[in-house]
Amino acid sequence: MADFDHLSGLVLGLYNYWIVIALMMTGLYIVMACGNLVKKIVGLNVFQTSVFLFYISMGKVEGGTAPILTGDPAEVFSNPLPHVLILTAIVVGVAGTALGLALAVRIRESYGTIEEDEINEADISDARLGKGSRA
Question: pLDDT tens digits for 29-83?
């Protein structure tokens, strides 16, 4: 019974890492299984969010405070660097999402669809007819 309590405490104590794994696998599945380009972008955003949550979880220090020196040598500080890097990554992620959605709009204008298999079929038929690429 003690082993079960230890195991359940370990599993429940690390719930944020289980959430990271679930989000990561969900995002990866969406990217791999969906042919719609917008859904792929959403899947990348879910995957990216799981990475953000992972880094924030790793940067958490139990009992840590803001790194302001007070003279107490026993005081535990939290490292602010992971949080700052994640803020930067969020901005880059939003820019990447905007770029991906803009490309999806251009692809829709050019091909009339955002389904990956239909775009591939159109490219193959254009190559057979010698039309070249769409601009």
Answer: 999 999 999 999 999 999 999 999 998 888 777 777 777 777 777 778 777 888 8
Report which of 28, 49, 30 is spatially closest to residue 97, judged by C-alpha positions: 49
Q: Measure the CA–CA gap between 40 and 26, rounded to whole angstroms.
A: 11
Structure-token pair, residue 7: 């195991």
How far apart (Å, rounded) are the C-alpha atoms in residues 20 and 55? Answer: 10
User: For the range 34-39, what are the long-range contacts, defined as Cβ-Cβ under 8 Å and sequence gap of 24 or more?
Assistant: 35/115, 35/116, 35/117, 36/114, 36/115, 36/116, 37/100, 37/103, 37/104, 37/107, 37/114, 37/115, 37/116, 38/101, 38/104, 38/114
- The backbone torsions φ and ψ at residue 36, rounded to the nearest 5 degrees and listed phi first, read -75, 130
Q: How confident is the model at residue 132 (pLDDT cuts 50, 70, 90)?
A: low
CA–CA gap between residue 44 and residue 93 (Å, rounded): 9
Q: What is the pTM of this model?
A: 0.80
